[in-house]
Amino acid sequence: MITWNNLDTIKAYGELEKVAKVNLQEAMAGENGANRVRNYSVPMAAGMAYNYAAKQVDDNVIDALAKLAEETQLIEKYAALYNGEVINTGEKRLVLHQMTRGQLGNDVIADGVNKRDFYVGEQKKIADFANKVHAGEITNAAGEKFTTVVQIGIGGSDLGPRAMYLALENWAKVNNTFKMEAKFISNVDPDDAAAVLHTTDLAHALFVLVSKSGTTLETLTNESFVKDALKNAGLNPSNHMVAVTSETSPLAKSSDYLAAFFMDDYIGGRFSSTSGVGGAVLSLAFGPEVFAQFLEGAAEADKTATIADIKKNPALLDALIGVYERNVLGYQNTAVLPYSQGLSRFPAHLQQLDMESNGKSVNRFGDPVNYVTGPVIFGEPGTNGQHSFYQLLHQGTDIVPLQFVGFKNNQMGKDVVIEDSTSQQKLCANVVAQIVAFACGKDDENANKKFEGGRPSSIIIGEQLNPKSLGALLSHFENKVMFQGFVWNINSFDQEGVQLGKVLAKKVLAHDTEGALKVYSELLNI
Amino acid sequence: MITWNNLDTIKAYGELEKVAKVNLQEAMAGENGANRVRNYSVPMAAGMAYNYAAKQVDDNVIDALAKLAEETQLIEKYAALYNGEVINTGEKRLVLHQMTRGQLGNDVIADGVNKRDFYVGEQKKIADFANKVHAGEITNAAGEKFTTVVQIGIGGSDLGPRAMYLALENWAKVNNTFKMEAKFISNVDPDDAAAVLHTTDLAHALFVLVSKSGTTLETLTNESFVKDALKNAGLNPSNHMVAVTSETSPLAKSSDYLAAFFMDDYIGGRFSSTSGVGGAVLSLAFGPEVFAQFLEGAAEADKTATIADIKKNPALLDALIGVYERNVLGYQNTAVLPYSQGLSRFPAHLQQLDMESNGKSVNRFGDPVNYVTGPVIFGEPGTNGQHSFYQLLHQGTDIVPLQFVGFKNNQMGKDVVIEDSTSQQKLCANVVAQIVAFACGKDDENANKKFEGGRPSSIIIGEQLNPKSLGALLSHFENKVMFQGFVWNINSFDQEGVQLGKVLAKKVLAHDTEGALKVYSELLNI
CA-CA distance, A351 to B510, in Å (whole number)? Predict the structure, then answer.
């Protein structure tokens, strides 16, 4: 029997607060530190590992976190989710994004269909369509192949798919699976669409319109912008556009599109990269086989997340350490720092995934919570960040927990030896050096050159950023965010915070305003 | 006589702490809110305005901040800086980035030269070089024009110039001043250089190598990577490369470069966009006249920052409100939210500018401070962010102060009318709606749909993002950061926090390691 309780009513949480705090500088010094690095490591899917040696925890803290996981029934709640219970209580919906990449528990029948069959069916439709585009069986009106795919979508229909595309673009190029360049239009700022269209060969471009509801104003506006451009170029828009939407949306049966691929209300935008939202553009860009490998990595990580032993479940452990940092140690932010240029927009995706899911102040029953919930997430790739905001991370007055990601090998296989090391070795040496510098610090007579240390970090280590490891990485963070939402007893799957602005924007556009709204509108000439 | 004192010893700061806190929801309601929007606005350079109506301040708070500005001698300290005093006490250097765009005070003679003459001379050298490249007087060995410029640099040699390039790229295209595409290589991850080179026509590419010291390992490594690629393509690297460096650097007199343009130790990397670091790539991409307009906007904002009246000095006011939010109200972060796709990487530049300058725990004399200093800075363009992390900003458990930027007109002049409004109108309506939603919130019987409000924001409003307004915007934030550093009594112009990692990375590469460093290195196969 699952029960949903606020964190501050959980007995194990009270015990966790009492566990002696770890002195990270001491813990990571000398042979003790070396042993921590050896022991505090959990295998992840796709051959990766989650290493938490430099987190401000020890066996006592981990034991207390394990009790917290047990008392809050995290594994049972995850099982309830993938077995089709209404976990999104705010919108009264199932939460089935894991099912786009595998079948973890029972068959889930909803809306009269087996949902796994439904998702697999749509994937197959997308794969067939992409294969036909690549083979020149689906072409423009002149019978010429499409060379570019342009996704039109915003939020979850943009950030995740864009981050995944950038993560695999160069890998695909050197592995001969690169089929079409992908571009993205998201912002209602007309300069966004205008700039993308300015550099796009419209006659050979295929547009993927992504909106679950079919009513997202930014996306419909940009669709219209694109259609005007196609018409002005003497092209018929319906020959250049496919839709990814829900079956009940106005886009679903329109003759305006070459094809429509379906998702449903059980997949939130920020969890939709493994659905058709990511599937169409990624299958067109890299081929359906690459997308299948991506799903395989995600499915493997979903399965790892079912393990009850916290020391063998990296998503669960990562989630609980994050809760400990947030609620017990009082840290407000988390920086995500991938040492891989391919992951340049992965932090922006995680920023949405985490902050939109867990930036909540009421629990699942609509009652205010008396503790802090989701942190602010930000980050940029290393080593770039080292020459930028790391100054504050090292010597600022607040401690920011860090989440590193690193790979042993690069994606493109080209490298150069300078001062006896390759660039890849320099990259890896830097991430290792940063972890130790943040944890241990350094004393100096000159206080300006003194590093306090005690700044906790973890690292996910993989062999290479490729479709499978990327899928596993994506799923790891989705599951981390889900587990944290369970611990905080909040609903991670709705997003009421995006609604109020929409209502007010409509008032402004209708000139139905007064007070501050009216004067601001005048200032901006609306 | 200037004196440098810690914030917690300032009498006016004690008084500021005692001023009654503003209830932002009440202040921004009804006609009172409308009056605040009308009155709480300060003209900025380039026809822009800084509006702080939705900040958690009132006349009493502003008066107290004015006293704080006076007692901490902020305007006098700024004058000392531009008159050539050694403001960067850590590295014992002058701080002269403003001089790259104007002469605010006395002539400054250093290293035996008039520094303004020196910076102007280098700008002229760059302008002449760029004009000759555009005219086809400087070409590749085959006598063909260069079509692409690729900047090789990291940190301040990358983020600022890249953000400025992206901000003006589309403006230049529609204003017929677009001369050459620019690309950027920064990360030591070999995939960064490999990916850029993969899509670059090497025979017609001009590389700009930027390193003040001439010793930045990432940049020298990437230079070598590029040279290998040029040689493999049968090209002579020295025909394809210019350097931006200091006169004392090993790069300064090398025959490896077509030309060398100079900066000096008095311009920090993150403040160098208006020096040759930004000047070379921007002049090559858009022409020297566009770069001159950019400098003009920055110079105008620098001059506005000399005004002693806090209500007429937007950088000073913005800085002090930021200190109030950080030290009195206790907010840890600031989100930068430009409603302009052209500013897509402007937040990343500000993240470096602010966090690297003010992420410090010791004062100018090396003594620990007893108060918090620089905040964490993050942000993405709106409306994109509205569909992502704004959820936490609206309904999360922590309050994050917001800095909006918006323009009345778009850059490319193309738009579409949907539901009776243009995209530009929708964009502006959204930023206005967000400001009011964050400040006023909304009550609802369903707590899940309730918005507390009380979340402070300011907005900078301009006519259009163009070279002049961009320069003014850049300078506004540089001066804001400088004033805040003065208030906190820290040195905003050094960056010891980037050093320790470098030392440890060298140890790793030399296999001179033990403890945690050794085991991490093994895990990453270094």
Answer: 36
Longest dimension (CA), chain B: 74
Q: Which two tokens stand for residue B92?
A: 């014992």
Burial of A126-146, coded b for 16+ CB within 10 Å and e otherwise, reads bbebbbebbeeebbbeeeebb
Tokens of B223: 């230079």
pLDDT in tens, A448-466: 999 999 999 999 999 999 9
**Cα–Cα distances in angstroms (integers) from residue A342 to residues A25, A169, A383, A458, in the given order:** 32, 8, 13, 20
Handedness of CA A78, A79, A81, A85 (dihedral sign): negative
B182 DSSP β-pair partners: B149
Q: Nearest Cα to A468, choosing from A159, A28, A101, A12?
A: A101
- The pLDDT of residue B502 is 85
Percent of chain B with pLDDT over 90: 97
A445 near B CB under 8 A: no
Cβ–Cβ gap B518/A400 under 8 Å: no
**Dist. CA B97–CA B84, nearest whole Å:** 11
Say whether A211 sits in a helix, a strand or coil: coil
Contact between B395 and A194 using a beta-carbon 8 Å cutoff:
no
A349 has pLDDT over 90: yes
Q: Among residues 282-321 of chain A, which lie with CB inside 8 Å of chain B?
A: none
B window 82-101, beta carbon within 8 A of A: 90
Cβ atoms within 10 Å, residue A379: 25
A37 in contact with B, Cβ within 8 Å: yes
Task: Tell me whether residue B419 is one of the annotated catalytic residues.
Answer: no
Peptide bond into B383 cis (omega under 30): yes
pLDDT at B46: 97
Mean pLDDT of A161-182: 98
- What is the structure's pLDDT at B254? 87
- Residues B427-485: tens digit of each pLDDT: 999 999 999 999 999 999 998 999 999 999 999 999 999 999 999 999 999 999 999 99
The interface pTM score, or ipTM, of the predicted complex is 0.98
List all residues of chain A from 410 to 429 with a beta carbon under 8 Å from chain B.
Answer: 410-412, 414-416, 418-429
Q: Which amino acid is at B280?
A: A
Place of tokens 């990814």: A244
Active site residue B349: no
Interface test with A, best of B175, B349, B500 (most A CBs within 10 A): B500
Asked if residue A383 has a cis previous peptide bond (ω within 30° of 0), the answer is yes
Cβ atoms within 10 Å of A232's Cβ, excluding its own: 10
Closest CA to A341 of A254, A427, A233: A427
d(CA B381, CA A366): 31
Q: What whole-number distance in Å separates Cα of residue B505 and Cα of residue A381?
A: 17
Cα A158 to Cα A164: distance, rounded to the nearest angstrom: 10
The answer to whether residues A65 and A320 touch, using CB atoms and an 8 Å cutoff, is yes
